[in-house]
Design a protein that fits this description.
mainly alpha, two-stranded antiparallel ribbon, globular
Length: 459
């Protein structure tokens, strides 16, 4: 009877969709914390007499970029990828959840309990920075280790449970639920902060990650049963999957398609996510939107992708054309960023642009992440994802710091900020992404990776 139950679990469509729901929810809670401070920039930069913390745009940029600090300089993403490939998704996922929880708690403590007035000069040549900013950035950096490790773990979970099935649709749904976390953070953090305390939405993020950690343990029990079943099947058929070896990575590192996907990921997300970090204040400064609702306009982007990403994922599964979709997505992204750089100040235009950007936000990820397992063997997948995330984190760390300094240098005499130079930087990054996406399409036609073919195995 127990063997029958295990057999049913491994073959049950319901079981794999339950697994998807669990790991997607856990990832969603991480996305809440990742973006909950972004719509608070305007409030953070108010003086303490006005209810803010007196941060500068440069300090906010340092905080926003801190998420990737340990991942880049301490190579923690590589460590996480190796841990994932050498252990399993249960251990790696639980560890990542605990790191996210610790980091989120550190951000909350810094904002809620550390005096925002004392400052520190990191070096004689650098401007002073608040103790509170440093503490919050440290918490965000710890959170970033767990957040990125959770991302590569969830990706491997989906490949494990959905290989040969609805993999792109599953990844699309996971991305959609993650974007729900982003949308909730962007849309509601300002309102919660204005009517309570600026640290209150951060506390809600800590609680959300705590629930996500508990839920992930339920997945661990299901995954343990599946592994026991697969071990029994391998013993009966005497088939063993070759173990992960560091030497195997040489073949991945020689794969030009893998590096093109990695570079595309770097450029696409370096243009998009840092833009979201500064988008709420952009709506206030350039388009005259009320601070309490300004976060709702950037929230259109992830809210729109909640429905569209699974739809595009289904199309990639059933029809293919993944590389073509990458090209279209980067073109749409770049066009929107270019229009944001123009001297147009209509709030209606801003809303329309966010809707179009939401479509682009759905198109490329629905094709990009399912492309990786077509290029990289399963046993190297965790480490391959970690390399992609590592390169991506370089951009996510440096671009917000750069944009923060650019915006500080473009403050007008009336106190408002000129966003033209910042948006031109984002546009150039997007244009480079178009070039790389075209190269991916060309390389797929030469190497026959199967990026343009459907993901669902007809057999």
């Amino acid at each position: 009877m127990s063997q029958f139950i295990r057999k049913q679990l491994s073959q049950s469509a319901l079981a794999r969709w339950i697994v998807l729901g669990i790991v997607s929810f856990t990832m969603m809670t991480g996305y809440i914390v990742a973006k909950e401070m972004s719509p608070l920039q305007y409030l953070l930069e108010l003086s303490t007499l006005q209810g803010g913390l007196g941060w500068s745009s440069g300090e906010f940029g340092i905080f926003a970029g801190a998420r990737g600090f340990f991942n880049v300089f301490l190579l923690m993403l590589f460590v996480g990828g190796v841990i994932l490939d050498k252990t399993n998704v249960r251990f790696a996922g639980t560890l990542s959840c605990l790191l996210m929880l610790a980091g989120a708690a550190g951000i909350y403590y810094a904002v809620a309990h550390i005096d925002p007035r004392p400052t520190l000069a990191l070096t004689p040549s650098m401007p002073v920075i608040k103790h509170q900013v440093l503490a919050a950035a440290a918490g965000f950096a710890v959170f970033g280790i767990g957040y990125e490790m959770c991302g590569i773990t969830v990706s491997k979970v989906i490949v494990k449970w959905f290989s040969g099935k609805e993999m792109a649709l599953a990844m699309g749904i996971q991305v959609a639920l993650a974007r729900l976390g982003t949308a909730l953070a962007l849309g509601f953090s300002p309102t919660i902060a204005i009517h309570n305390h600026i640290s209150t939405p951060i506390l809600w993020g800590v609680l959300a990650v705590g629930v996500g950690t508990i839920v992930y343990l339920i997945f661990c029990m299901m995954d343990t049963r599946i592994d026991h079943e697969q071990d029994s099947e391998k013993s009966s058929t005497r088939e063993e999957e070759p173990p992960f070896r560091f030497a195997d990575l040489v073949q991945t590192m020689k794969n030009s398609g893998f590096w093109l996907i990695t570079l595309l990921c770097l450029l696409y997300y370096s243009a998009l996510y840092p833009f979201l970090d500064f988008a709420t204040k952009l709506m206030i400064s350039k388009y005259g939107v009320d601070p309490e609702v300004a976060g709702l306009i950037p929230a259109i982007l992830p809210f729109g992708s909640i429905l569209l990403t699974p739809v595009f994922g289904y199309l990639v599964d059933s029809k293919g054309r993944g590389a073509t979709i990458m090209v279209v997505g980067t073109i749409m992204l770049t066009a929107v960023l270019a229009v944001f750089a123009l001297p147009l100040t209509s709030s209606v235009l801003a809303i329309v642009l966010m809707i179009v950007l939401g479509i682009a936000f759905s198109l490329l990820p629905s094709a990009l992440w399912p492309a990786v397992p077509k290029i990289v063997p399963m046993k190297q997948l965790g480490t391959a994802y970690s390399i992609i995330y590592y390169i991506q984190n370089i951009g996510l760390m440096l671009i917000p710091v750069w944009i923060g300094h650019v915006l500080e240098a473009n403050v007008r005499l009336d106190g408002t900020t000129d966003y033209t130079q910042a948006m031109l930087i984002f546009t150039i990054i997007g244009a480079l992404a178009i070039v790389v996406a075209i190269l991916v399409l060309i390389q797929d036609r030469r190497k026959h990776y199967g990026l343009e073919t459907p993901n669902i195995d007809p057999s």
